[in-house]
Design brief:
The chain has 264 residues and is of the alpha+beta class. The protein is 36% helix and 22% strand. The longest helix has 16 residues. InterPro entries: Asp/Arg/Pro-Hydrxlase, IPNS-like_sf.
Length: 264
């Protein structure tokens, strides 16, 4: 169990011990977690342990909030195509990807920071907030209404993430591989399904589903990394929630990306 998940689990246990009257609340969180867990459609013992006692514990504790967000948004498709998003969302996603593609040489300059490192992340924006001192990509200095987080992830050779869950369902994760490997050695697994970058460089999904990114090739893997507001008739409310939460967890990037090196 990771340290942050031990803290979450210990806090829940302490609440129940100190206030037995909190039992209905704890029961509700467990019920919400069970409902949320089944979305990934993996029911083996390892998956149960990972979600409730491993690196999915935070996702479990936030499951009541995430299920409430589901009620404010359009039906969750789990894995999306760009055409599944509204025109407004598509325009912004396409504009960000185009800016990265046109300035790929700048992205490749991150390679000099990857010596001896496994995975690197360069954030330009985090939950709607512009970050100072990050990679400067022309065309991304505009205001975005739907794209909330902008970054670039770089995997060194023969590297992969752990199998894990994202914490929040306010946004969709959008990844775009800038230089797809052509030998089926770089891919992402989401809820038991595998997506190869060589088949389609763009992949959009609900990152509270269990997933793992893999680069088994002998070259660096560069992916544009975006969080995009979920389509909803209550977009202004989602934007306020993202801004509020983003301000509160700006410091938490080091926790969520503890196994990544921050690039600039």
């Amino acid at each position: 169990m990771k340290s942050k998940d031990m803290v979450c689990f210990a806090a829940l246990s302490a609440l129940l011990y100190a206030r037995p009257t909190a039992l209905p609340v704890v029961a509700g969180i467990i019920a919400a977690g069970l409902c949320d867990f089944q979305r990934s459609r993996q029911f083996d013992a390892v998956s149960w342990r990972r979600y409730f006692l491993g690196n999915g514990t935070l996702t479990w504790l936030l499951s009541p909030f995430n299920l409430a967000i589901d009620m404010l948004c359009r039906r969750n498709l789990r894995v999306y195509r760009l055409s599944d998003l509204p025109d407004t969302h598509r325009e912004e996603v396409s504009a960000v990807i185009a800016a990265f593609r046109e300035n790929f040489a700048l992205v490749e300059s991150l390679a000099c920071q990857m010596s001896g490192k496994k995975r690197g992340m360069c954030f330009l924006r985090w939950y709607g907030r512009r970050l100072q001192g990050s990679l400067c990509i022309p065309g991304l200095d505009r205001d975005f209404k739907y794209v909330q987080t902008i970054g670039c992830s770089v995997f060194n050779q023969r590297q992969r993430t752990s199998v894990h869950y994202g914490p929040l369902r306010l946004t969709l994760r959008c990844l775009y591989n800038l230089a797809p490997d052509q030998h089926a050695e770089a891919f992402i697994d989401v809820a038991g399904k595998r997506h190869y970058w060589r088949h389609d460089p763009l992949f959009i999904f609900d990152d509270t589903l269990v997933h793992q990114s893999v680069n088994d090739s002998d070259r660096l893997r560069y992916c544009v990394f975006l969080d995009v507001l979920r389509p909803s008739p209550l977009t202004p409310l989602l934007r306020v929630l993202v801004k509020s939460i983003g301000g509160g967890i700006l410091f938490a990037r080091r926790v969520f990306y503890a196994n990544w090196d921050m690039l600039r």
